[in-house]
Structure formats: C-alpha cells, structure tokens
Amino acid sequence: MMACLSAASLSAATPVVLSTDIAGDIDDTWALAHILRSPELDLKMVLTETGEARYRGSVAAKMLEVAERSDVDIALGLTSGVMEDKDRHQGPWVADYDLDAYPGSVHEDGIQAFIDLVRAADEPVTVIAIGPVPSLAAAIERAPAIAGKCHLTSMRGAFDTGYGGGPVDAPEYNVRAAVPALRTVFDAGWKSIKITPLDTCGLVALDGENYRRLWNAVDDPVIRGVIENYAVWAPRVPWMDGLSLLTHSTSTLFDDVAVYMAYGDDFIEYETIRFHITDEGHTIRDPQGPHEAEVAIRWTDLAGFESWLTARLLGEL
Ligand SMILES: [Ca+2]
C-alpha cells in the first residue's frame, strides 16, 4: 500500500538534489527527514559540501537506510580529507557504518554525478542548498549550463537580522565559509533563486507541544533516527549547550526553512533583493549589486509554520 502511494505521489513530485554539510549542525538531519516526508519533493541525490565527504555521506546514507530510501544517490563532493574527532559531531552515530555497503549508489565523483543527473532530467531540478557551496561551485565551473535547468533554494545570509534574532553582527556561516564559491554559484543562470536568511530561518525551533510530539514518536523510525542523531550531537558541539536543550526543544532549524520553500509559500513574506557579498561574508542590499534573489525576509506566522512543520515531520500532512 505504501509503495503504491509513494509511486503515485512521486510521479508528480519535483526532482530534488540536496547540497548539504550534514553531520556538522544537526539541522541538516532534520532537513533531510523533512524532504523525505514531503510528497511534493522527490529526492534523487545528496551532494556533500565541505569537510570530509565520506563522513558526511555516511550520516546521510545511514539516515536514508533508516527511512528505507536507499534509492537516493550519495554524491561525494569536494573533500578536505579526514576530519578530526572533535569536529565529527555525529561521529559515534556512524562509527560502525560502512558507506561501501550502502545498497544504493555512492558516487566518488559526486560533482560529475550531479552534472549528469541534471543533464539527464526531463524537467527542472530543484537544488536545496543548506551548507557552504564549494561542490556546487565546482559543478557550475565544470558545466555552467546546468544552472539553467535548476531552481536554487538556499539557506544563507543575513539582511536585517543576525543570529538569535539580534542585529547583524557576525556574517552567516554558509556564506562566510566559502565566499568565492557562493559568488560563482549566484552568478550562474539559475531558473530562480530563493533564500532564507537568518531573518527568517534563524528564528525557527520546535519546543513545547511540538517537540513533545516528536520526542514521543518512538515508533517512527525516521524521527527516531533524527532524535538519535540529536542525542549523539548535543554533548559534542562546542558552540552551544545542546545537551540542555535535548529533552525539551530542537536547536535552531535553519535548514528546514529552505526545504519548505522548495514546495510551500505560506507563513512567509518575500522581498526581491539585489545585493552584494562582502569578502567577510556579509550579504548587503545594493541596487547595483551583482546578485538578486527572492528572499524570505520575515514571517507572517512563525508559530503556524512551527506547528505545520511538526505535523509534516510526523507524516501527518
Ligand atoms: Ca547546514
């Protein structure tokens, strides 16, 4: 029954590639689960960004196995070589995982695999980019025409609001970590570019009744998998006291907003913004700037989105 339903829904769904630095911040894992729970989206490939490609690929592959979705390809992007244990925030979760035993395809040259996927697609592909983008930039440099077959939906930048809802102080990480790569990506001729900056994505966390419902979903292997990831991650992150959150709230779910924007427009007010990117990684409004995007600049109903996201993650919507 489930197989019939998913086959029927997937036929009308948008083909998606997820460009991600999964296995750093936990929100990428929530975002992967969100995609898998969204019948509007047909995930074809996970492309790793920054750090150790096989480590990131292993976390994605294990989650896909948990979700019984090993039809999704793992595309290994540019790699830094082996990451140190202190930087492997979900490392224990994949300590015994063998990426070579993943039942689906693992592409050692994931950049070429991504190019080939886009070239072979019969319809536009939506690229959901939730990390820095050196692998995407490498694909654009190798095959510039692929951007014209893709929509880009992305979590990055900060226009009027910085981390934690405060003023824009430090530049947003996904921009700062790879500024030249991002300029290359934004300069490509995408069919469309949507961004959720910190102005919107930096305000999302599930707590209270929303989190209680996720925490109690012990019979749901996908949500259990994410919570397991979260429990491994929480005591290992230096930039926040994740452990104090674990039992009553998610951390900030930046990346889930980019996933949502790939298929939904409720709850959000958009602004078309022309801007430039400074060398430090700030995104600055600039009528003469080289880049333009549809920017999710503020929430019309953040609480509504959070309860909607909870239900979506639980497979109720
Ligand atoms: Ca991310």
Descriptive overview:
The model is unreliable at 1-10 (pLDDT under 50). Helix 2 (27-36) links the parallel strand 1 and strand 2. The chain has a ten-stranded mixed beta sheet, with helices on both faces. It is built from 13 helices and ten strands. 48% of the residues are buried. The two termini are 17 Å apart. With 317 residues, it is an alpha/beta fold. It has one domain (2-313): Alpha-Beta Complex (Inosine-uridine Nucleoside N-ribohydrolase, Chain A). It has helices spanning 2-11, 27-36, 53-66, 110-120, 134-142, 173-176, 179-187, 198-201, 208-215, 221-233, 242-245, 254-261, 302-313; strands at 14-20, 41-48, 73-75, 106-107, 125-129, 150-155, 192-196, 268-277, 283-285, 291-299. Helix 5 crosses helix 7 (179-187) and helix 9 runs parallel beside helix 13 (302-313). Helix content is 37%, strand content 18%. It binds calcium ion. Calcium ion is lined by residues 20-21, 25, 28, 130-131, 255. Residues 20-21, 25, 28, 130-131, 255 line the site of calcium ion (CA).
Strand content: 15-25%
Give the name of the CATH superfamily.
Answer: Ribonucleoside hydrolase-like
User: Helix tally?
Assistant: 13
The CATH class label is Alpha Beta
Question: Architecture in CATH?
Answer: Alpha-Beta Complex
Count every beta strand, where a strand is a DSSP E run of 2 or more residues: 10
Sheet with most strands? 10 strands, mixed
Outline type: globular
Quick take:
The protein is an alpha/beta fold and 317 residues long. The chain has 13 helices and 10 strands. 37% of the residues lie in helices and 18% in strands.
